[in-house]
Design goal:
By secondary structure, this protein is of the alpha/beta class. It contains ten helices and eight strands. α2 links the parallel β2 and β3. The chain is globular, with a radius of gyration of 17 Å.
């Protein structure tokens, strides 16, 4: 068994099921120290025990946080920093579709709070640690769903109750692309790379947090037509570990290939504006 990641530290959100769990298992199998971030401690502890047993790597641990809560994001970043002096790979993977309009603890629309602010806040709080780790990488999970809806920066953080669901999900996934673009720009010269990716349709438990038709549809269709989590995690693992991927930054990938996105294509001004809004929201 290859232990090529020995000595490296990986921090993975959304890691107790689906592609996040599959990727964490691979990182641990290859010798990395893996720190999982999960909302549910009981479930997180079970996954930690499972990964240790499956990989023979006891250097797997858990941090508990609700990644839609700014206070939790700041706390979990501080907890990680208190026990680590390096961060080789940050995997931003926690996300969900919310079919009904709801607000986070901070009064932000929940999809934006979890799918974007969770990525932004954790990365923002750990930037200096990433910069001090040679060859560090940030890998963020986006989606083909970024093509849904129109990206309106003026309403994305709050939006209207009748404009949540899939439009909010699509805009949050486009936000992941813009965030990656701006992050890469701000990291120029540091040696840290930042990329995002589209996993495709994966049997990962996506959509099952909802009720009604959406839950039924995903529970029926996913086991038949979707990729396995291991197949779905392939590009994530490649971006996080391969020498080839280290030559790219600020890009959006599908199946290990750089993929063009919908308009506004590579809109640097919008990416900077989203960063400034996120920074203002995160810092209060």
């Amino acid at each position: 068994m290859s232990r090529d990641l020995q000595g490296q530290v990986f921090l993975v959100t959304g890691s107790t099921e689906g592609i996040g769990k599959a990727a964490a298992r691979e990182f641990a199998k290859r010798g990395a120290e893996v720190v999982l971030v999960a909302r549910n401690k009981e479930k997180g502890d079970r996954v930690v025990a499972e990964l240790k047993k499956a990989t023979g790597n006891n250097d797997v641990s858990l941090l508990v946080a609700d990644m839609s809560s700014i206070a939790d994001i700041k706390r979990v970043a501080a907890e990680f920093r208190a026990s680590h002096t390096r961060l080789d790979v940050l995997v931003n993977n926690a996300g969900a579709l919310f079919s009904k309009y709801q607000l986070s603890k901070d009064g932000l629309e929940m999809t934006f709070a979890l799918n974007h602010m969770g990525y932004f806040g954790l990365t923002y709080s750990l930037l200096d640690l990433l910069k001090s780790t040679k060859g560090a990488r940030v890998v963020s999970t986006s989606s083909l769903g970024h093509k849904i809806g129109k990206f309106d920066l003026g309403r994305i953080a709050k939006r209207e109750p009748d404009n949540a669901g899939w439009p909010a999900y699509g805009e949050s996934k486009y936000a992941n692309i813009l965030f990656t673009r701006e992050l890469a720009r701000r990291l120029q010269g540091s040696g840290v790379t930042a990329n995002c990716w589209n996993p495709g349709f994966v049997n990962s438990g996506f959509g099952l947090n909802n009720g009604g038709f959406i839950k039924w549809a995903f529970s029926v269709v996913s086991p038949i037509f979707a990729k396995t989590p291991e197949m779905g995690a392939d590009t994530l693992i490649w971006l996080a570990t391969s020498p080839e991927a280290a030559s790219h930054t600020g890009e959006y990938f599908s199946d290990r290939k750089v993929t063009k996105v919908v308009e506004p294509r590579r809109d640097d001004e919008l990416a900077r504006a989203l960063w400034e809004l996120s920074e203002k929201l995160y810092n209060g």
